[in-house]
Amino acid sequence: MLLTPSELEALRGRLIVSAQAYPGEPMRTPTTMAQVAASAVIGGAAAVRVQGIVDVQFTRSAVEVPVIGLWKDGHDGVFITPTASHALAVANAGAHIVALDGTRRERPDGLDLKQTIAMVHEQSHALVMADCGSLADALNAVEAGADLIGTTLAGYTGERPKTEGPDLDLLATLAASDLGVPLIAEGRIHTPAQARAALDAGAFAVVVGTAITHPASITGWFDAAMQA
């Protein structure tokens, strides 16, 4: 594997920064995202998460920390690294960890999660992070062979309500379930206090994206507060 057990363990209690921009935005270039990721590392990020094959390649060259890669294809349903082909492409681009949809929903290529994870493990050196939306998702993903579990899709699959901030109840439930793999908190973590709360709820590490790397959203928050 690209990451040794000790390198993975080094992420415990640390911040992972997601550097992504939406299509059509000025920052939506691999060079810019790699620069944003590198800036986050200077600030203390222990790993980074980026979207897109070229973004993974550029970011691998820009940072010396673990890179979590994914490939978004579509906007609804299963679209985070939705097929085995997407996952293998992300791994081959150099991602240390491939993040993919880890829910129990049907995947576009007809393969189940276990088959997809097995292909990544067998055909690459990458680990797999399953982006889940519920306890049932997480338990199924661990059974399928996922190396890490993320709460990325909590509130987006219809199984749980969408909380204003991170789903701390789900985090606590997953932590109490003793999954046996690192539990990564991700989703709607917008303040340092919320990141700390996620760790206190049992997260192994915490991913923060929008609140650090998406200027349009951050500006909107300030503008909305001032217009209220």
UniProtKB/TrEMBL annotation:
<keyword id="KW-0119">Carbohydrate metabolism</keyword>
<dbReference type="InterPro" id="IPR011060">
    <property type="entry name" value="RibuloseP-bd_barrel"/>
</dbReference>
<protein>
    <recommendedName>
        <fullName>Putative N-acetylmannosamine-6-phosphate 2-epimerase</fullName>
        <ecNumber>5.1.3.9</ecNumber>
    </recommendedName>
</protein>
<dbReference type="GO" id="GO:0047465">
    <property type="term" value="F:N-acylglucosamine-6-phosphate 2-epimerase activity"/>
</dbReference>
<comment type="pathway">
    <text>Amino-sugar metabolism; N-acetylneuraminate degradation; D-fructose 6-phosphate from N-acetylneuraminate: step 3/5.</text>
</comment>
<comment type="function">
    <text>Converts N-acetylmannosamine-6-phosphate (ManNAc-6-P) to N-acetylglucosamine-6-phosphate (GlcNAc-6-P).</text>
</comment>
<keyword id="KW-0413">Isomerase</keyword>
<dbReference type="InterPro" id="IPR013785">
    <property type="entry name" value="Aldolase_TIM"/>
</dbReference>
<dbReference type="Pfam" id="PF04131">
    <property type="entry name" value="NanE"/>
</dbReference>
<comment type="similarity">
    <text>Belongs to the NanE family.</text>
</comment>
<dbReference type="InterPro" id="IPR007260">
    <property type="entry name" value="NanE"/>
</dbReference>
